[in-house]
Every structure is written in structure tokens, then in C-alpha cells.
């Protein structure tokens, strides 16, 4: 069997995917990070500070909840990893806090970030408020219109939100603008990327910071059941909650890893974000991965009802897990996700984020036996999606 990597080699490659494809102007920033990130992340003092913040500020460990109604419905033992109970409402705070601490260790005083729906922007602005860092968030002008409550949160937290007017005025344009900012201020600024994407070492940094999710799952499942789970399921936008939920199981071949992408209005509809189904190898935002692109390498606009999954690529580790078949990639439509969100709400009393609802809906496509323990990563809560849920509900009734 082909070798499977959970960490990249020194050039940032997981098999054939990864690397650092950046303009020469970014070399100093990237090289500084490449040279220093592992010794900082593994440093005892850093780990102690990070773990204390995760415990007392974020509220970790997050519970592993046995969902009895879902279990009865699907004929297996369904457990939910409750990342929705984290401070700020999703897994993103794990990465934002870890990278803000990393930035301080690098002597940086200013943080920049990009955000689509505003979730990563809010998590970053939160970490910066806590740690006394100056914060600037780039956000597409279209997204600013769509996500006013999160814009207000970031501003109240003290962040400067800059509207990006280029391109389609959405996430990928915000990433480009953030990279431009970083080039112009290499010495005092750290760029906190929001998912397991970007040039090496970002995918590895974000994966390691999010790997607390699978570290906890493993311990919690073993405590509750005495065995490893049959499967771990997580949704994939860029892939950070899935990378975190998979990491400590990658070398346990008996654990099925299932990644769920957004099929939007259907994989073949032209309005989809199912990257592995539609994409081909290519370079996006500084690394080689699988990308939704046309024959000329132009990125195809993705679509998903959930802003967090509306991304035309996946991180390089996911491209590797896909290519080696270590993880299985499936897709769920907008409608299937919304229906799964209503089922969870009405049967378990938990309103999930639309992104997480994709992971739940995957259960409809999978077959398990009654003894199988299946862990679904509930990446975030649904407060931010109430408008979408209510309009769906009102149209149906
Ligand atoms: C941002 C977000 C995602 C998608 O990002 P990943 O990096 O793929 O995890 C998923 N769920 C929630 C709740 C989010 O906020």
C-alpha cells in the first residue's frame, strides 16, 4: 500500500500535494515561519499556555455526546463531538488562539486574517482582543453585506474590517488581499490563515492546532466503549475541522475516515463545491492540491448554502488522503444538509451550523452495523444560520 502521511516532509509535501508556491516577496515571511514553527509548537511553555487557554477560556474538552435518537434512526451508535460548545461557537477558535500565541512568540504585534462568513474573523478578533494584538480582517464586500452580525462582532472586539472590492468580492479575493498586506509588512505582521490551506507550513500548523479534536475523541471513545470508533465523519470546506478530527486516527486503518463536501444544488448542477468530485490537481493559494478549475486553470466559482464550505479547493493533506483512498470523500446537497439540521434540532435539541449539518446528512448515505461506533464532528452551532433555516422552514409550511 502507498505510504500515508499525516505530517508533511520538510518541503511541505504530503506525497505529491502541498509545497509553498508564493511570490518571491513572501519568501522571508514564509521562511521565518518554516524555520521556527515546529520548535515553538512543541515547546513546553507554549503547550502549557495553549492548553490552559483551551481549557479555561475555550471550554475544552468538548463533550463526546451519545445521540440516542440519531443512533436509533441509523441503527448504529452515533456520538457527536461537540465543537459547537466552544467559545465563539465553532472549532475555529482552536486555530486562532494557537496562531495568535505563535505570533507573539515570533515577536509580531499585528495580525491579519481573511474571512468568508466571518467565523474565522470573529475567532481571530477574539484571540487578538484577549492577547493584546492589533487585528485587521479582510472580507469581500459581498460577504460584508451578507454577514452583518459577524462584522459587528469583529468591530466590537476591536478589529478593523477591510472591505475587498476586487474579483467576485468574496473569500478567495479576501485571501489575495491579505497576502498582499503581508508582503507589504513582513516584519511586524503574522497572517492567521483560517483553514488547512495555503503555503507550507500553514496546513501543518493548522492541522496540529486542530488535532486536539481527535486527541480528545480517541480518549473519550476509548473511555466510553473500550475500543476505537468504526468511523469518524467531518465536513470539509478547506478541511480544518476534518483534519483535526482525523489526525490521531490516520494511522489506525480500522477507523474509517469520511470527509463530506458540499454538493450545493447537485454535483453536476454547476452550483457545487464538491472539490474532489469536480476538481483536478492544481495550485491554489500557495499549495498544490485538488482545485475546481477550468481547462485554462481558471478557478471555478463554488457554491454552497453554507459559507464555510463555499471554497473551490481543499487542503493538501486532504488531497493526499483522497488520492491514497485513506479517507472517503462524499458530497451532500444544500437541501440534504438543511433537512439533517432540522432532524438534529427536533430529535436531539441541538441546532447545528449548516456546515456541520453536511456531516450529519452523510449518515443517510452510509451503512453501519448496530455495534459500530460512529463519531460525527459537530464543527459549530447554528446561530449564524438562523435566517437560512427560517426561510427554508417558512417556504415549506
Ligand atoms: C469555517 C467552518 C467550517 C469549514 O472549515 P473547515 O476548515 O473545513 O473546517 C466548518 N464548520 C464550521 C462551523 C465553520 O465555521
Automatic annotation (TrEMBL):
Keyword tags: Amino-acid biosynthesis, Aromatic amino acid biosynthesis, Lyase, Pyridoxal phosphate, Tryptophan biosynthesis
Keyword Amino-acid biosynthesis among UniProt keywords: yes
Cofactor(s) the protein needs: pyridoxal 5'-phosphate
Assembly, per entry: Tetramer of two alpha and two beta chains.
Pathway of action: Amino-acid biosynthesis; L-tryptophan biosynthesis; L-tryptophan from chorismate: step 5/5
Chain segments annotated as coiled-coil in the UniProt record: none
SUPFAM superfamilies: Tryptophan synthase beta subunit-like PLP-dependent enzymes
EC number(s) from the headed UniProt entry: 4.2.1.20
Family annotation (CDD domains): Trp-synth_B
One Pfam match: PALP
A Gene Ontology molecular function term of the record: tryptophan synthase activity
One GO CC term on file: cytoplasm
Function noted in UniProt: The beta subunit is responsible for the synthesis of L-tryptophan from indole and L-serine.
Name used for this protein in its record: Tryptophan synthase beta chain
Span of domain Tryptophan synthase beta chain-like PALP: 59-380
Family: Belongs to the TrpB family.
Swiss-Prot/TrEMBL catalytic activity: (1S,2R)-1-C-(indol-3-yl)glycerol 3-phosphate + L-serine = D-glyceraldehyde 3-phosphate + L-tryptophan + H2O
Residues modified to N6-(pyridoxal phosphate)lysine: 92
Catalytic EC class: lyase
PANTHER family xrefs: TRYPTOPHAN SYNTHASE, TRYPTOPHAN SYNTHASE-RELATED
Amino acid at each position: 500500500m502507498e505510504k500515508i502521511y499525516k505530517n508533511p516532509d520538510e518541503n511541505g509535501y504530503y506525497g505529491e500535494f502541498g509545497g509553498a508556491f508564493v511570490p518571491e516577496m513572501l519568501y522571508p515571511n514564509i521562511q521565518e515561519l518554516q524555520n521556527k514553527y515546529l520548535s515553538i509548537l512543541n515547546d513546553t511553555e507554549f503547550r502549557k499556555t495553549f492548553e490552559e487557554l483551551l481549557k479555561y477560556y475555550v471550554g475544552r474538552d468538548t463533550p463526546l455526546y451519545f445521540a440516542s435518537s440519531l443512533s436509533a434512526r441509523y441503527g448504529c451508535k452515533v456520538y457527536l463531538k461537540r465543537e459547537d460548545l466552544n467559545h465563539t461557537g465553532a472549532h475555529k477558535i482552536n486555530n486562532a488562539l494557537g496562531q495568535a500565541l505563535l505570533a507573539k512568540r515570533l515577536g509580531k504585534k499585528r495580525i491579519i486574517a481573511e474571512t468568508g462568513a466571518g467565523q474565522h474573523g470573529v475567532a481571530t478578533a477574539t484571540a487578538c482582543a484577549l492577547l493584546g494584538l492589533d487585528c485587521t480582517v479582510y472580507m469581500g464586500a459581498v460577504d460584508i453585506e451578507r454577514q452583518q452580525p459577524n462584522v459587528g462582532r469583529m468591530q466590537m472586539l476591536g478589529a478593523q474590517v477591510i472591505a475587498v472590492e476586487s474579483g467576485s468580492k468574496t473569500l478567495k479575493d479576501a485571501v489575495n488581499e491579505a497576502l498582499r498586506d503581508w508582503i507589504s509588512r513582513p516584519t511586524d505582521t503574522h497572517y492567521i490563515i483560517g483553514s488547512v490551506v495555503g503555503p507550507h507550513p500553514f496546513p501543518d500548523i493548522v492541522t496540529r492546532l486542530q488535532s486536539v479534536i481527535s486527541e480528545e475523541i480517541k480518549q473519550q471513545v476509548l473511555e466510553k466503549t473500550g475500543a476505537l470508533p468504526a468511523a469518524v465523519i467531518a465536513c470539509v470546506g478547506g478541511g480544518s475541522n476534518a483534519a483535526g478530527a482525523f489526525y490521531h486516527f490516520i494511522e489506525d486503518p480500522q477507523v474509517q475516515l469520511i470527509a463530506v463536501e458540499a454538493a450545493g444544488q447537485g454535483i453536476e448542477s454547476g452550483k457545487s463545491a464538491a472539490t474532489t468530485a469536480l476538481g483536478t490537481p492544481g495550485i491554489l493559494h500557495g499549495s498544490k492540491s485538488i482545485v475546481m478549475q477550468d481547462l485554462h486553470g481558471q478557478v471555478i466559482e463554488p457554491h454552497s448554502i453554507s459559507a464555510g464550505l463555499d471554497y473551490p479547493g481543499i487542503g493538501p493533506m486532504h488531497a493526499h488522503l483522497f488520492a491514497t483512498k485513506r479517507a472517503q470523500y462524499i458530497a451532500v446537497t444544500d437541501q440534504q444538509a438543511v433537512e439533517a439540521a432540522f432532524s438534529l434540532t427536533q430529535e436531539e435539541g441541538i441546532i447545528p451550523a449548516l456546515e456541520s449539518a453536511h456531516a450529519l446528512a452523510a449518515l443517510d448515505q452510509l451503512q453501519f452495523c448496530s455495534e459500530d461506533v460512529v463519531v460525527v464532528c459537530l464543527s459549530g452551532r447554528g446561530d449564524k444560520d438562523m435566517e437560512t433555516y427560517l426561510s427554508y422552514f417558512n417556504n415549506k409550511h
